[in-house]
Amino acid sequence: MAATSTTAAVIGIGPVGSLAALGLAHKGYQVSLFDFRPDPRDINDVNLRSINLAVSDRGITAMKYVDQEMADRLLKGIIPMYGRMIHDLKGNQESQKYGLFREHINSIDRGKLNEDLVSEVERYNKSNPENRIQLNFKCKFTNFHADDSGVTIEYSDAERMKRTAKFDFVVGADGCYSRVRSALMKYIRMDYKQFYIDMCYLELSIPPGPKGSFRIDANHLHIWPRKNFMLIALPNGDGSFTSTFFGPWKLTESLNKKELVEQFFSENFEDAVDLIGMDKIVEAFLDHPKGALMPVTCNQYHYSDKCIIIGDAAHSMVPFYGQGMNCGFEDIRVLLQLLDKHDQDRKLAFDEYTATRHKDLLAILELALNNYYEMSTKVQSPRYLIRKRLDGILGRLIPKYWIPLYTMVSFRADIPYSDCIRIEERQQTILKGLEYALVAGATLAGVYLAKRR
């Protein structure tokens, strides 16, 4: 089945939507992109609720699958982060490495990546004038209708005029509040769940030092873990850090006066106050918007060969594993590979996508939720540190047979998320046994030495 005459509408010109459009266009599909927002390159929009992105192996592998040279351009200037830098209450810092062999995740500015991907669409269009990707900004998708002849989408244009357009299929990449997902529900029996965790986020910023220098280590993700709340910071190319406070809604909303904010930060993040500035912290808590964290799960992800949803539209997750965008990009790679496997038969490809991808998406949503507890609490636990050290020793001694969970998730795109959990459960059982053996050995040694005295 040839793809050259097949038309596709991709809804959402965020990173996932733009990469999906490029991936489909490279396969020969005639693609049109729609988004209700203006061209991100034409506006100076400081989004005060945007968490910096960490791009790792799954995202990089997907970008390279779509276009190796494009991936090289997009990844130019990213900042490698080799581990977490833990800041305790006294201002002491401790590095905890991510990988066993210098592997690293990378800090990337979400806004810049979004702009660069739109520019890559235009670069593609210049090189492929016969199969241009149509960019439709300020066009708000409202609904679609599917029948045997294809899919008709409804949208309002920049002048708020109602329009329709006909395509062979639609890809929904329009985020956690997806309108495509809502329209899709009318055609399938979709299991759908959304819930808000009792956690909000608020963006802060650490300004650069003299001459654009970094005031704390640039090659770490910095964490100030305080059990039920925490502060993190990721580096930017100009020497600044994007910092984000995470805390329960009740706590965060109670910090509604200057003196309360000052007292809270002085008691819990004294060294961060020196970096951010108390005036900026107070301004953020009193004046800036606070973001909600809303995981979304659903099943199934498609209707026949007419519509499929990917990215946050299908599986919005909390940001604590840094896998949201990476997982969305991996969706694209998996989908494109299935289209190739089935000779561009969308019905077969979409069916297999839902059947095989769902367990992996549930797995990463679970991992992301669990990782908040690790980041905010466990990273300072002696027991956690001992087990992590054992995990690393085994990973170095027998790398073919032992892979730490973080390595599997962040640095091994060849291991599905669901397999990561299965393998980790087995390894944790072994680690617990080793831990008990070490404790028992230490106890027996202590008793023996005591008797000899």
From TrEMBL:
Gene3D superfamilies: FAD/NAD(P)-binding domain (3.50.50.60)
Domain of life of the source: Eukaryota
GO CC terms, sorted: mitochondrial outer membrane
SUPFAM superfamilies: FAD/NAD(P)-binding domain
One Pfam assignment: FAD_binding_3
Coiled-coil intervals, chain numbering: none
Cofactors demanded by this protein: FAD
Alphabetical keyword list: FAD, Flavoprotein, Membrane, Mitochondrion, Mitochondrion outer membrane, Monooxygenase, NADP, Oxidoreductase, Pyridine nucleotide biosynthesis
Domain FAD-binding: residue ranges: 133-359
GO terms assigned for molecular function: FAD binding; kynurenine 3-monooxygenase activity
Pathway info: Cofactor biosynthesis; NAD(+) biosynthesis; quinolinate from L-kynurenine: step 1/3
Principal localisation: mitochondrion
Catalytic reaction annotation: L-kynurenine + NADPH + O2 + H(+) = 3-hydroxy-L-kynurenine + NADP(+) + H2O
Keyword Protein biosynthesis appears in the UniProt entry: no
Gene Ontology biological-process annotations: 'de novo' NAD+ biosynthetic process from L-tryptophan; anthranilate metabolic process; kynurenine metabolic process; L-tryptophan catabolic process; quinolinate biosynthetic process
E.C. numbers: 1.14.13.9
Location in or out of the cell: Mitochondrion outer membrane
Similarity annotation: Belongs to the aromatic-ring hydroxylase family. KMO subfamily.
Function summary: Catalyzes the hydroxylation of L-kynurenine (L-Kyn) to form 3-hydroxy-L-kynurenine (L-3OHKyn). Required for synthesis of quinolinic acid.
Name of the protein in its database record: Kynurenine 3-monooxygenase
Source organism per UniProt: Brettanomyces naardenensis (Yeast)
Name of encoding gene: BNA4
